[in-house]
Design a protein that fits this description.
The complex is a heterodimer of chains A (292) and B (158). Chain A is of the alpha+beta class and 292 residues long. Chain A contains twelve helices and 14 strands. In chain A, strand 6 and strand 7 form a beta hairpin. Chain B is an alpha+beta fold. Chain B has two domains: 76 residues, Beta-grasp domain (Ubiquitin-like (UB roll)); 69 residues, [2Fe-2S]-binding domain (DNA polymerase, domain 1), CATH 1.10.150.120. A five-stranded mixed beta sheet of chain B has the order 2-1-5-3-4, with helices on one face. In chain B, strand 1 and strand 2 form a beta hairpin. In chain B, helix 2 packs across helix 5. Chain B is globular, with a radius of gyration of 16 Å. Classes of the chains: A alpha+beta (292), B alpha+beta (158). The interface between A and B is medium-sized, with 26 and 30 residues. The complex binds flavin-adenine dinucleotide and FE2/S2 (inorganic) cluster (2 copies). One FE2/S2 (inorganic) cluster binds next to loops of chain B.
């Protein structure tokens, strides 16, 4: 790894000033789990890293019924997984955090680093889009909020401008009847990263689904909302046939990545199977006996 | 390059050291402190051979800089035994064939120690999940899971 200056700002202002002063030479450093790999593989070569560890403004997880959930960007996956307020109000997010990567990476990697790196082969983006998350971003001229769906721009590209720092993730307050589901597909059980994942949120009203969000991650360059498939599931009695139909539409609308871990055709099939299963399970149906 | 004085509690002792900013925690432990129980395997966060406890939580020392250890409490595999008395996990790995070449063993012992500190009677699924960040190329895992289960039973006196 090349020579490095490791800076430890004590406030957000100081960190933003350092990023402004050093420009392209500097990179933000949170847990380091993604950045150190990229540096050792010489994909990134910052001469300076600005370590966020001392910024208390980026820590903590809090919930109020008016504002909803705020997750500090420095929260590690394991902290999100075991936070009582996350488990109580957004159990699907706690489940995602508890199941991604492996125990060590969950103890070391932060949610902020996960999102800012923009690696498609990850779990949180799709579920955060399905939960209508907003990201709080600080720059020298103040703070702005960006919808999670707009934050994800392309493969390893986010809406962060140079010198900006992600400070927190916000989720809207929970509403009655709103539930979330999540499924990830691994190529082999020993592989940590998903080749595809599906997040589903909906509000149950009189046995029918309303306000449905179906979002695909990891199989696509950025998490992709499946509006047509979601519309097909809205206001209809969910049957295995309807689950299969929604899955067919989602697979058709998918913009898959194709790489060493899975071809576009393979990912399309995985998404189709996973959507069918998650919809069936969310409706309490047993898909295992039925033909696809 | 910046250099940093770090102070940490390592296997129960307070130590201070000077480290260059780009030194990995795994290299600091092995090359600077000669604690070679912690292994370097993949050095990409996959195999778990470099696992240590940081503030009681299992972590991969190849995914961390030494300077990040400042102010932390670290346990490496060298810190598990009490003098000549093996840790209950170490004894169980020997008894149940939890190792062959032994290269992955320090990492598995540390991941298992983290599990048993949070959950004194894990079932097999919980054991497998807790060890899912560690790879062994020899044993086929059954002996490892048997050893962790036996260690838990031993601790519980069952
Ligand atoms: C073996 C392995 C398996 C993994 N498996 C999975 C998986 O299954 N699912 C999954 O979702 N993820 C997985 N990951 C990815 C893991 O979740 C991320 O590496 C981790 O969350 C990154 O967080 P960090 O704090 O370490 O980021 P860092 O490495 O510190 O930073 C990553 C990037 O984000 C930038 N950055 C960090 N924080 C901020 C901020 N607050 N504001 C602006 N920029 C910032 C940095 O400049 C850098 O470019 C895996 C990683 C490894 C090593
Ligand atoms: S050497 Fe650290 S995980 Fe393999
Ligand atoms: S005992 Fe040889 S790699 Fe595990």
């Amino acid at each position: 790894m090349r020579n490095l200056d490791y800076l430890e700002p004590e406030s957000l202002d100081e960190a933003l000033r350092m990023l402004a002063d050093y420009g392209d030479e500097a990179a933000v450093f949170a847990g380091g789990t993604a950045l150190l790999l990229a540096m050792r593989q010489r994909m990134l070569a910052p001469g300076i890293v600005v370590a966020l560890g001392g910024l208390s403004a980026l820590r903590g997880i809090g919930y109020t019924p008016e504002a909803g959930l705020r997750i500090g960007a420095l929260s590690r996956h394991s902290e999100i997984a075991r936070a009582d307020i996350v488990r109580e109000h957004y159990p699907v997010l706690a489940k995602v955090a508890a199941g991604l990567a492996n125990p060590q990476v969950r103890n070391q990697g932060t949610i902020g680093g996960n999102l800012c790196y923009g690696d498609p082969a990850t779990d949180p983006p799709s579920v955060l889009v399905a939960l209508d998350a907003e990201l709080e971003i600080a720059g020298r001229s103040g703070t702005r909020r960006v919808a999670m769906a707009d934050f994800l721009v392309d493969y390893f590209t986010t809406a962060l401008e140079p010198g900006e720092i992600l400070t927190a993730i916000h989720l809207p307050p929970v509403t009655p009847g709103r539930v979330g589901h999540y499924k990830r597909h691994l190529r082999t059980p020993a592989e940590h990263r998903p080749v595809a994942n599906v997040a589903l949120t909906l509000t149950e009203r009189g046995g029918l689904w309303d306000d449905v969000r179906l979002v695909i991650g990891a199989a696509t360059p950025v998490a992709q909302s499946m509006a047509r498939a979601a519309a097909a599931l809205t206001g209809q009695a969910i049957t295995l046939d309807l689950a299969a139909e929604a899955a067919r539409i989602a697979a058709e609308d998918l913009t898959p990545v194709s790489d060493a871990r899975g071809s576009a055709a393979f990912r399309r099939q995985v998404v189709r199977a996973t959507v069918r299963r998650i919809v069936a399970e969310a409706a309490g149906l047993d898909w295992s006996e039925a033909a696809a | 390059m910046s250099h940093h004085w770090i102070s940490l509690t390592l296997n129960g002792e307070t130590i201070e050291a000077e480290v260059p900013a780009n030194r990995l925690l795994s290299d600091f432990l092995r090359d600077q402190l000669a604690l070679t129980g912690t292994k370097r395997g993949c050095e990409t966060g996959v195999c778990g051979a470099c696992s240590i406890l940081i503030d009681g939580e299992v972590s991969k020392s190849c995914l961390s800089l030494a300077v990040q250890a400042h102010g932390k409490t670290i346990t490496t595999v060298e810190g598990l035994a009490q003098g000549q008395a093996l840790h209950v996990l170490q004894a169980a790995f020997m008894e149940h064939g939890g190792l062959q070449c032994g290269y992955c063993t320090p990492g598995f012992l540390i991941a298992a120690a983290d599990l048993l500190s949070r959950n004194t009677s894990p079932d097999d699924a919980e054991i497998r999940k807790a060890l899912s960040g560690n790879i062994c190329r020899c044993t086929g895992y059954q002996g490892i899971v048997d050893a962790v289960r036996a260690a838990a039973e031993n601790l519980n006196g069952t």
